[in-house]
């Protein structure tokens, strides 16, 4: 623990927290420094910004009768044909969830399954022309709305922000071994 922090720390399991909470007094850490820590503000800002982006994505996807997850799937498939397991990995979903997602999109004519030659059990998924049109329509609308928000930053701020975002994304992808 840093020298400039003083606290009493208590770790309790979820099962006994109610009983323990009635019998103890918890003192949270206090930081004694003159300089404010920018990380909490940065994290809070990133979380709030993610809420804004998710709200925009949800609203614009919803206008096309899609969930954000369905939109993500179509965006992933926009430039590739991949297997269900790989799609599940990219979307960070269980394969059974991806199967339902693909089923619903296939019924709407947005994606199609393709048999893999030489492997009767494997299928690949690809976006149809209708699916591609929907994902491009939503992508253009998202870019316009988020672009309008980003335009409130100066060119220099936009460049700096873009570089920072790229660094964060690359770090996350590397640390979590997310297929792209």
UniProtKB/TrEMBL annotation:
Gene3D superfamilies on file: Winged helix-like DNA-binding domain superfamily/Winged helix DNA-binding domain (1.10.10.10)
Classification via PROSITE patterns: HTH_MARR_2
Domain HTH marR-type: 39-170
An MF annotation (GO) of this entry: DNA binding
Superkingdom, natural source: Bacteria
Record SUPFAM superfamilies: Winged helix' DNA-binding domain (SSF46785)
Keyword set, alphabetical order: DNA-binding
Biological process, per Gene Ontology: response to stress
Protein name: DNA-binding MarR family transcriptional regulator
